[in-house]
Amino acid sequence: MEFDELQKIWDSQTKEPLWVINEHGLHKRILAKKSQAHHITNFSELLTIWVNLGAGSFVLGVNFFKRPENLFMYVMAGWMLVTALFVVVSRIRRLKSETTFDRSMLGELNEAIAMATYQVRLSRLLRWNIVPIGALSLLSVWEGGKSGWLLVVLLIFFVLVYFASGWEHRIYAVKKRELDVLLKKLQTEETVS
């Protein structure tokens, strides 16, 4: 981890305590990690909101003007619009909570951890959201009397998307774990000194 590498380099070059000169560098590193977490979270939220709003509205419009109408497509459109609304509300709450952290190094780190925790929860929610969307898509194709091959292709597609989202989720979980480890190290160093 970067923190360990910093400490090893410092220890090899001098016998002075780590915090004497690296406090500023460490603070900059925490700010960079917080900025990265903020960017990823902001992008994920906005993408989720716009994709669900757009896709939900599109499915609703197509199904409304198409005959015969498909009940499962109405349910899917409603699900997507509710998902977009849920993420909007979550985003508003997250943005309000950002003002509760102080601007000290520990406050910045706690804010980065809170944002990373939020991102992990959001990615888990979006991963599980693939299940109802996939099921509703398959049911709407089945009700529409389409080919069995289309059902198989769609099923494979949603299974692949589910596993790919798990890979993405693990990346966010690792980033959060790194921040947790850094916080524990800082707290340990603080109690030692």
From TrEMBL:
Q: What is this protein called?
A: Uncharacterized protein
Query: What keywords sit in the KW lines?
Result: Membrane, Transmembrane, Transmembrane helix
Which domain of life does the protein's organism represent? Answer: Bacteria
According to the record, the segments passing through the membrane are 43-65, 71-89, 125-142, 148-167
User: Is Transmembrane set as a keyword in this record?
Assistant: yes
